[in-house]
Amino acid sequence: MAVLTKAPRGTQDILPSESYKWNYIEQTILELASQYGFNEVRVPTFEHTELFNRSVGDTTDVVQKEMYTFEDKGGRSITLRPEGTAGTVRCMIEHGLFNEAMPLRASYVTSCFRYEKPQAGRLREFHQFGVEMFGSSSAAADAEVISLASQIFDTLGISDISLEINSIGCPECRKKYHEALKAYFKSNEESLCETCKGRLDKNPMRILDCKSPVCKEISKDAPIILDYLCDDCKEHFESLKARLDALGIEYTVNGRIVRGLDYYTRTVFEFISNNIGAQGTVCGGGRYDGLVEMLGGPKTPALGFGMGLERLLLVMEKSGCPFPERAGCNIYIGSMGEKASIKAAQLTAMLRREGFNAQSDVVGRSVKAQMKYADKIAAEYSCIIGDNELDEGVVKVKKMATGEEFKVSLNESVGDIPDMLSFVYDSVMHTAMLNMNSAVESFGNIE
Ligand code: ATP
Ligand code: MG
Predict the structure, then answer these.
(1) What is 17-170+230-319's CATH topology?
(2) Are 381 and 399 in contact (CB under 8 A)?
(3) 306 CB under 6 A from ligand 1?
(4) For the whole model, what pTM was predicted?
(5) 279 in ligand 1 pocket by Cβ < 6 Å?
(6) CATH 3.30.930.10 region(s) of the chain?
(7) Proximal ligand: closest to the CA of 270
(8) CB-count exposure of residue 425 (10 Å: 0-12, 13-18, 19+)
(9) What is the pLDDT of residues 321-379, one digit of tens each?
(10) Does ligand 1 lie within 6 Å of residue 310's CB atom?
(11) Which ligand lies nearest to the CA atom of residue 264 in the structure?
(12) Architecture label for domain 331-431
């Protein structure tokens, strides 16, 4: 039955042979985030549906079409999180964190769920790295959050990505803009998609984010909000640009970016790659000064971004970004017979306790099959323990790459260190040092 052997549409398995890339990306990102003072928050995978209806907004695509909503056995309406901000804000309010020192920073790596049409870079379960910063209304905070995203791309070796910024103003300056937008779209009302017809009076800015080709085409000539900003919003935007300039972060202003979630105010931004097809937005974010209060917390300015990790990985693979080598097997200790197999297991256990990747046979295979396996997993060293080796207390360890052989004592200790351990330690560490030296050389002389 296909339902047993095929994952649901729009989901993706990450195989053991690929997960090191994810580990590398996540570790790199979380480390950088912590340099900026962002520590991880972990919130539930599902929340009360109302939380997303309110925060994301009930005229957005996410709420209207994409949420995984169901009734639980207790009759509550529950939704799998479509994004990370709402749950984070709910958590901060619930735990009274807005009474603590500001700014308050939080980050997360998390799965999100949206019922969308699956295609390259668009899944139904996807993963986001996100940050949220609360308690600053200054453009300095916007610049800092953007500079974290930018540093993440730099550090991962992604250069072909561009930053686009916009300001979508505050509720005050948006009033006039909404009127202008309504007037513009009214003249094209007949051609708009059904969803957008419904948005026209309630939230005309949403039409600008509609994915339907016709709505997109009509939106091209719509008035842009930058022409309607109030003095304060204008000043905020100018200050952000000056700060990005000062930090050497390149950007272009794109008056058409509105973002897909209702809670944004003032600054919005996207990092876009031209390398991965139509779903090129790798990171999107902005300011949401009204959200905390709207959800029942104290009035608190805030901002953040979400970075799609599947798209990030696609960009890295497409642009040939380097990944660290996958941690491999340092030594395979093969054996023949029960007694030798136990000896192999003991040595393996000892080496693992010391931090090495050591493997021995747990299948009961022939020596030939064990060696084939050692080859397959690309073990650096291998040996076979049999009756002779047990009797003599010596085993020959082979360096797989060169065929070089080394005699290692099975029983004796060199000082307090078992011979096998000191052998693996010296050989593996020696190789590691050589690799490190060549890496340092490739960076040139570090003064
Ligand atoms: P898009 O316009 O591509 O639908 P969005 O505006 O809905 O994006 P956000 O809600 O801002 O996206 O989410 C932030 C980031 O999360 C996106 O820039 C993207 O990298 C990623 N993302 C969003 N939806 C998906 C999805 N269905 N599959 C994979 N990644 C996604
Ligand atoms: Mg979307």
Answers:
(1) BirA Bifunctional Protein; domain 2 (3.30.930)
(2) yes
(3) yes
(4) 0.90
(5) yes
(6) 17-170+230-319
(7) 1
(8) middle
(9) 999 988 799 999 999 999 999 999 999 999 999 999 999 999 999 999 999 999 999 99
(10) yes
(11) 1
(12) 3-Layer(aba) Sandwich (3.40)
